[in-house]
Amino acid sequence: MSDTPRTTEDEELGELDMEAMRPSTERDMEVEVFDAVRGQSAFPVDPVRLTPDDTFEFECHKGVTCWNKCCHGADITLTPNCILRLSKRLEITPAEFLLTYTVPAMHEKADLPIAKIKMGGDDGRGACPFNAAEGCTVYEDRPATCRFYPLGMVSVKMKDMDGVDDFFFLVKEDHCQGHCQTKSQNVGEFREEQGVEEYERVNRGWIDILMKAASWKVMGGPGGKAPSPQTLKMFFLATTDVQAFRRFVLESRFLQTYEVDDRAVEMLKTDDHAVLLLGYDWMKNVLFNEPTISMKEQVLQGAIAKARESMGAA
């Protein structure tokens, strides 16, 4: 994927035409499972809904007999914040990180493009590229999946509900001896210790999109159609490469098309999290016609007029 996308005026207006004609539809419930299951296990979930106050016993350390086993053949989806943190840690651009350390994939439920860690070996069952005998070489910036383990999280959003309800469950893989340890903590303490709060805050908009896309997929997609290849390309760009998306926003006709406050534009020049948040808002608008970002009035009127003309309206 190119990291310097450009759109012609006709292409942009074509996207605006599509947006203007898109219906607004909502399912009764949207669910996203962030399962933290690594490898091709048979989804070994302890089917007990956990709250932040519920306790469990688990500890991972060099003394366990399964040390480093879970870092081989792992199936690790990278969230936007994972890519941002790891590329900064390695002092390379997000584009370089994606090329070197990841493989492209499609989110199974949402049919949206994502990136996964590229495991070693011809069959992908080898070691994580950040694994060493002493453990994880990027531990302070390890992916969200690794931080959550052995917890999984379910996010549920009911129709007309403002917020998202999260709950948790335990993942117990046969090889993992961490569950045999005696360290006891509650879910809230474990999450704080593992530093997942920042990841959840930065990634929430991305998770919202995956949830809604999975919901719309059941009904045949927005307007009965799957997202266009161009839309999928722009989703991947906006959620994996903040540097490229920043260039797109600042150097294309984006700021001539959408209402973005001058102060926000200044933030976008230096604040990577602000770039991600703008990307989420833009994709929610493009994919679902949500009012998360506004077109400039003259652009909107022009798009509506063109859509009417193409449909033979007066």
Domain unit count: 2
Order of helices and strands: HEEEEHHEEEEHEEEHHHHHHHH
How far apart the termini lie comes to 40 Å
C-alpha Rg (nearest Å): 21 Å
What does this structure look like?
The protein is an alpha+beta fold. The protein has two domains: 107 residues, no CATH class; 175 residues, no CATH class. It contains twelve helices and eleven strands. A four-stranded antiparallel sheet has the order 1-9-10-2. A hairpin with a 2-residue loop joins strand 7 and strand 8. Helix 2 crosses helix 3, helix 7 runs antiparallel to helix 11 and helix 8 packs across helix 11. The longest helix is centred in the middle third of the chain and has 22 residues. The radius of gyration is 21 Å and the shape is globular. The two termini are 40 Å apart. The relative contact order is 0.19.
Summarize the structure.
The protein is an alpha+beta fold and 314 residues long.
Main features:
314 residues, alpha+beta, four-stranded antiparallel sheet, three-stranded antiparallel sheet
Describe the secondary structure blueprint for this structure.
Elements: H1 9-21, E1 29-34, E2 45-50, E3 55-57, E4 77-78, H2 80-90, H3 94-101, E5 102-106, E6 113-117, E7 131-132, E8 135-136, H4 144-148, E9 151-158, E10 165-171, E11 184-186, H5 187-194, H6 197-218, H7 229-240, H8 242-251, H9 254-257, H10 262-268, H11 272-288, H12 297-310
Antiparallel strand pairs: 1-9, 2-10, 3-11, 4-6, 5-6, 7-8, 9-10
Helix pairs in contact: 1-12, 2-3, 6-11, 7-11, 8-11
